[in-house]
Design a protein that fits this description.
Layout lengths: L1 E5 L5 H9 L2 E6 L3 H10 L4 E3 L16 E4 L22 H11 L3 E7 L9 H12 L3 E7 L12 E7 L12 H10 L6 E3 L2 E5 L5 H10 L47 H10 L3 H18 L2
Parallel strand pairs: 1-2, 1-4, 2-3, 4-5, 6-9
Antiparallel strand pairs: 5-7, 6-7, 8-9
Helix pairs in contact: 1-8
């Protein structure tokens, strides 16, 4: 399968795609430090920088999975939470890319604060916008602890599927609904006013997620196709140190950096997704895609 990423950072999504054996078609990152890391480790991917000035239509119907952790600062509890008034509210440009590329699957990621910002306005708009383009959307609130990381790091994940490669599709896929329902076992859900999040952020988060992922444990030999091995969280303390390993990013990923770029590395690690979480989502997508294409 083929993958492309937006707001790529230092390549968390791209790394997870490489782990599962997918081809990375392109990435898009405006930060010069991130661009250098991506160019070094993913040289076969076409590189774009400013998403607001890029036309992605050249890749129409060529990408199976389009991912993007669109900027979280407008909704993060650590910021001013200006939301759509913030110039970093860039999901509309991700949506434009979706329209131009017409991927089969779309995965969006953001901070937990997106769910309740302005009574969930943007949270619901993201799903409504994708549904208008013919996608069926389900949201997941998944912490890094779900893959045994030593901290919570809650993130909202939007997983969208279009039955016909090269949307728009207005038909509902029974197999998609059935696959999601079967994969839902053991996970508590919380209904929202205009939708539903599969919520495991309650006091029994760790137990629920360990049960859910126990049957999907990742063996190290599954990563033999990658130059980066999966980060083992067992050696990290409960209080996360200031380094990339506690977030699942291999230290080798920014090995081209110099000491004067240490601050850039720390910032990049902090903004990165936990690729082990993305990898589990990718595994589910691959499993489903194999099912419907038998």
């Amino acid at each position: 399968m083929t993958h492309a990423s937006l707001f790529s950072g230092i390549g968390g999504f791209d790394l997870a795609a490489e782990w599962i054996g997918w081809d990375n078609i392109f990435h898009c990152e405006w930060n010069p430090f991130g661009q250098k890391v991506l160019a070094h480790h993913f040289p076969n991917s076409k590189s774009y920088n400013d998403i607001t000035k890029t036309d992605f239509s050249i890749h129409a119907d060529q990408v199976d999975i389009l991912t993007g952790g669109f900027p979280c600062q407008p909704y993060s509890s650590a910021g001013k939470r200006l939301g759509k008034a913030d110039e970093r509210h860039l999901f509309p440009h991700m949506l434009r890319c979706v329209k131009e590329v017409k991927p089969k699957y779309v995965i969006g990621e953001n901070v937990r604060g997106l769910v309740n910002w302005n009574d969930g306005m943007v949270f619901h708009e993201v799903q409504d916008d994708l549904e208008r383009e013919g996608y069926e959307v389900q949201s997941f609130l998944i912490p890094a602890a779900s893959v045994n990381a030593p901290h919570q790091r809650y993130r909202i994940w939007f997983v969208a599927y279009c039955k016909d490669f090269g949307c728009k599709s207005t038909k509902t896929s029974n197999k998609w609904q059935e696959h999601i329902q079967n994969d839902r076992n053991g996970i508590r859900t919380t209904s929202k006013s205009n939708g539903e999040i599969w919520d495991v952020t309650n006091s029994d988060t760790t137990r629920l997620y360990q049960q859910h992922f126990a049957s999907k444990s990742i063996e190290k030999n599954e990563f033999s196709r990658s130059s980066f091995k999966r980060r083992d969280f067992a050696s990290f303390p409960t209080k996360s140190p200031i380094c990339g390993g506690n977030d699942g990013i291999p230290r080798e990923l920014d090995s081209i950096t110099f000491s004067k770029w240490r601050n850039q590395s720390i910032k990049a690690y902090g903004n990165a997704i936990v690729p082990q979480v993305a990898f589990e989502i990718f595994k589910a997508i691959q499993s489903f895609d194999d099912l419907v294409n038998v």
